[in-house]
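ok so i was messing around last nite and threw this chain in just to see what happens. nothing serious, just curious
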Amino acid sequence: MSLTTTDRCNSCQGAVELGTDNGPIVCPDCFGEGRQLDSLERVEWRLRDIEQAHQGAAHGCESEVRWLVLELRRSRDALLKILSRCQDASDSEGNLAAAVKYDANQALGLYAVRPV
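result:
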């Protein structure tokens, strides 16, 4: 499948690599995909790079980075749920506020959630 001009990565133009003085490197903007990534993909790939760079005791902050990445993923997941529910809800739906509160609390972890 051929990429159209608008789908190609702006940095590597679909070539998946960039030339440097030390030889070719994988494009840091599309991560070797050759196409423009949406924000969800871009953030997740970047988080994985950060996790890999901070594995082991060399940096001394592995547990902090893992915690921060987990919190970011949870927050983004909750925001996606909130957005989805808001888009799907009708104006007369009364349970929307409760669902939004639940999802926000799930991301923030402010209150213990117990089964009804």
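not much to say yet. Residues 38-108 form one domain.
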